[in-house]
Amino acid sequence: QKAEWAKLVNERTITKDGHHVELAANIGTPDDVKGVLENGAEGIGLYRTEFLYMGRDHLPTEEEQFEAYKTVLERMEGKPVVVRTLDIGGDKELPYLDLPKEMNPFLGFRAIRLCLEMQDMFRTQLRALLRASVYGNLKIMFPMIATLDEFRQAKAILLEEKAKLQAEGVQVSDNIEVGMMVEIPAAAILADQFAKEVDFFSIGTNDLIQYTMAADRMNERVSYLYQPYNPAILRLISNVIDAAHKEGKWAGMCGEMAGDAIAIPILLGLGLDEFSMSATSILRARSQMKKLSKEEAARFKETILSMRTAEEVVAFVKETFHIE
Ligand code: PEP
Ligand code: MG
């Protein structure tokens, strides 16, 4: 089977009925690009930049960040690279920021909330990204967006830094797409409004499931509630994809679910455009995708979305698509 998959390294991902879907990889550091290329990813769908900030005792400089982003963009040779701005807080702490302990870190001062307040830090990252943008196909997304106002503020800051750089005579790409992660239920529900203002969505199911089910993604005792196939989650995902398409935008997914064998036929049928997963899942997913018909998968959309439980969904999908 492995040998079979290896032959797919240089192929685009085309379904049995001729539809292209993008299979991209998630990375944490520039060193991960090697595995991305070896496994034939068509792009990077999530570059988690927090690793640049972790395991050290001070903030990374603009220059250090610029080098990291430039390296990734160059090695990807024009393939899309979606970089997520700093998503710190929750389970990821930065000791040198000296933030007060919180009762509910996952519901607290983190990600875009923190960046909009600690703007020097945010602006440094955006400048590094903007300067690196001329070395490849950069797309930028903001994590943990809950309101339109947050997205507008973040985008306005990005555009301010772009204008400043250009006034200094620095080259910046004019084709940077600016999108957001959809990982908070409020954003998933209001996706039709967000879709008018973003260039793309990337659904972060790791957090979207945790927040929708009110079940901590790290807590074993409530892990029975962590249900990717709960119809409530699937309806949110479907809403996000439909909202994007109505406005002519694309929708991807960068949570663990995107690489899951049971999720893949469901997501294909819901119309997901880009699937971003760990590099080691790409070839298996491509092999699965080649055997699926998008039009057939789409015919099961209403049936699946009107189911009552995750168990029903799993049983139906396994049976229908012959998954062990
Ligand atoms: C997510 O929440 O699904 C996601 C991709 O982000 P992270 O796992 O880094 O929170
Ligand atoms: Mg997340």
UniProtKB/TrEMBL annotation:
One of its GO terms (molecular function) is phosphoenolpyruvate-protein phosphotransferase activity. It is an enzyme of class 2 (transferase). It catalyses: L-histidyl-[protein] + phosphoenolpyruvate = N(pros)-phospho-L-histidyl-[protein] + pyruvate. Residues 2-292 form the PEP-utilising enzyme C-terminal domain. It comes from the Bacteria. It is found in: Cytoplasm. Its EC number is 2.7.3.9. Its main location: cytoplasm. This is Phosphoenolpyruvate-protein phosphotransferase. It comes from [Anoxybacillus] calidus. The lineage of its organism: Bacteria, Bacillati, Bacillota, Bacilli, Bacillales. The chain holds residues 250 to 573 of 573 of the full protein.
